[in-house]
Structures are given as structure tokens and as C-alpha cells.
Amino acid sequence: MLGDGVWILPGLVFITILEATRPARPPGSYWREQFLLDAGAFAVVALTSKALRPAMDALSSHFSFLRPSTWEGWLPLWAKVVLVLLVADLLEYWLHRAMHGFSKLGQILWQTHSWHHASPALTALAGYRGSFLQRLLFGACFLAAAILFDLHEPIGLATIAAISIAHELVIHANVNIGFGPIGAVISTPRWHRIHHAAEATLQLSNFGMRFTIWDRLFGTYTDPDSVPADFPLGVPDQRHPVRVVVGI
Fold first, then answer.
1. Rounded to an integer, what distance in angstroms lies between the CA atom of residue 87 and that of residue 79?
2. Is there a contact between 23 and 123 (Cβ–Cβ < 8 Å)?
3. Which residues of 69-90 are buried (b: 16+ CB within 10 A; e: fewer)?
4. Its pTM surpasses 0.85
5. 57 touches 143 (CB < 8 A)
6. N or C: the chain end with fewer CB closer than 10 Å?
């Protein structure tokens, strides 16, 4: 569910070509100063995902007793996939929001998440900066939703993995592509880019990972048309690289 890296490569190449040909913002010195760093970060994420898989499988088995058997038999696979995507996204919304909180817990959670916000130029590749603990926490949201709705079918899990990987690539991409009416419900690059702003007030909005509905419901929605198009991005992270990668 977290992805293995190999799944991501074809889509990453395609999105990178779009970023070079239809950029939303001028790339500036990105390719010279940041690309190799982000490529290394991507490799770390791919290895992290592989390392986390046994842990997530063990957790799934350990908490399988929480799986309601009543779903089995009458809830079709497509419905379970949709429900898992929605509920996991709701859990991720609140986790993501907590990571930006000002409480003691928020400060601890921010350590797992700050590397994701460190890039001054947001691209699909830069979007894969994610600490070990961050990916464990977001993966646990999907695991909880999958257990709740008894989603264990390989095709269902593969579908969710493919959707999640593709969408994570798209929303962080530096591309100038219109999404039409779907952008009112599904998070888009232009919408999500606001959350990666250097300005703290903008960061405290648009927390939804795949859907905009939670931000609309809970008052954290910022309309892309309401902010300048060229706001600065990124919050520098000066911690030791090992702490950054682990998330502590």
C-alpha cells in the first residue's frame, strides 16, 4: 500500500517530462541545485517503503480481530475500495493537521513531517520527501481503514496503491494543467501547492491528501484564486540528515 518505488518510476518519468514542457512555475536552478538531492530522497523513500512492508503486514495480522465480519459477503469490492479511500483520507487529514499543530504533540509530529516541506521548489520528485516515521503514520491510516472495511483482496489493495501513488505524483508536480470541475473535489497541484507555502498561515490550510471535502467541511480550505500565483515555497530544515530521514 505504501509502494515499492518501482511502481512509481514510469509515472515519475512522465510527470517530469510534463514539468519540463508545461511548468506551472519557472524551474529556476532546480535541476542544477535540487534535482540530485530529491532523487536521493526518492531512493530513501523507496527503500523505506520496502522496509515498512513487513511491519505493516504484521500490524494488519495483529489487529485483524478488529475487522468486522459483517462487511464480508454483501459489501462489493468496489465499494470497499471507495470507502477505504475516503476513510483513510479523513484519518490522514486529521493526522496531517495535527502535524502542523502548536501543541506538544504537534511539535513532535512536525519532526516527522518537516522534511516534506523543506523543498523551495515543489515538484513530483520533491513531493516524495518523507521520513520513515511519516510514512509509517500515513500508512497506518490506510491500514486502519482497510481493516475496518475488511479490504484484503489483492486487486483491491493494488488498486488503492496505484491510485495513491499516481495522485501523490500529480499533486506535487510543477505542472500547468487544468482539471476542470473535478478540481472542486479532488486535490490538484495548484490547490496543494498552497499548503507547501513558506507563509505559515497558508500552510495551515488544504490538508486533504486526495480530497478537498475535509478542508471544506472543517474550515481549512483556501481557494487558489484567493492567493498570488508566485508565493514562495518551502520551510528549511537544518537538522542532521539522519534525523531528517528518520523523522525525529
1. 12
2. no
3. eeeeeeeeeeebbebbbbbbbb
4. yes
5. no
6. C
As given in the structure block, the three cell numbers for residue 26 are 519557472
Instruction: Identify the residue whose cell numbers are 521520513.
Output: 131
d(CA 208, CA 141): 13
Spell out a b/e string for 119-135, using b for 16 or more CB atoms within 10 Å of the CB, else e. Answer: bbbbbbbbbbbbbbbbb
Q: Give the type of residue at 237.
A: D
* Per-residue pLDDT tens digits for 145-188: 988 888 888 899 889 988 888 888 899 999 988 788 888 899 99
Phi and psi at residue 186, in whole multiples of 5°?
Answer: -95, 135
115 in Cβ contact with 245 (< 8 Å): yes
pLDDT digits (tens, 9 = 90+) for 76-89: 899 999 999 999 99
Q: How many CB atoms lie within 10 A of CB 166?
A: 14
* 95, 138 Cβ separation under 8 angstroms: yes
Bin 100: left if φ > 0, else alpha if -120 < ψ < 50, else beta: alpha
- Over range 62-77, report the average pLDDT: 63
Q: What is the pLDDT of residues 179-208, one digit of tens each?
A: 888 888 999 999 999 999 999 999 999 999
Strands (E), 35-175: none
